[in-house]
């Protein structure tokens, strides 16, 4: 139905609540790229497809509980679902994450201004699953260590430690990238 391209999200939600398959497809098409990026911050490519599939099942089955609160509220609601599904997939990996004996000091946060955003995203995705989850929850979702600990079933000190290690690994990767690509440190 081409007319769906021109209707607003409240109308899409109403149609999805009535199980209109064209509206479901439109909702999916409007948000899949963004939600793929969100899910990709937490899980690897092999798991991402499963996370997105499960997320859209939850979105479509629980859309009746969605409460419109203004522009962007639908995307925020769907983002929470994707993050929660991704975290469900990560909980086992985080609980079994080995604690490195290596101390990773962070002198200062490196300047990332000259590094393409795609490279930064790749570096984040290369972090071990637990570190990546904590980093994303802290940096992108702006969660406290108490909230992260509760979400992931770990201690607050583990959350803080994993964030510290994630930042140290990223700092090392950024500095290596700059050196390998002869970027200046200005």
Quick summary of this structure?
Helix content is 66%, strand content 0%. It has 186 residues and is an all-alpha fold.
3D architecture notes:
The chain is mainly alpha-helical and 186 residues long. 66% of the residues lie in helices and 0% in strands. It is built from 8 helices and no strands. It has helices at 9-17, 21-40, 45-62, 73-95, 117-125, 129-139, 145-152, 156-180. Helix 2 (21-40) packs across helix 3 (45-62), helix 6 packs across helix 8 (156-180) and helix 7 packs across helix 8 (156-180). The longest helix is centred in the C-terminal third of the chain and has 25 residues, at 156-180. It is globular, with a radius of gyration of 19 Å. The termini are far apart. Mean pLDDT is 85; it is low at 99-104.
Query: What is the H-and-E element order?
Result: HHHHHHHH
Silhouette: globular
Radius of gyration over C-alpha positions, nearest whole angstrom: 19 Å
User: What is the percent of helical residues?
Assistant: 55-70%
Oligomer: single chain
Q: Summarize the biggest pleated sheet.
A: none
Strand content: under 5%
Say how many strands there are: 0
Distance between the termini: 53 Å
Low-confidence stretches: 99-104
Helical/strand content category: mainly alpha
Mean pLDDT across all residues, rounded? 85
Task: Give the number of helices.
Answer: 8
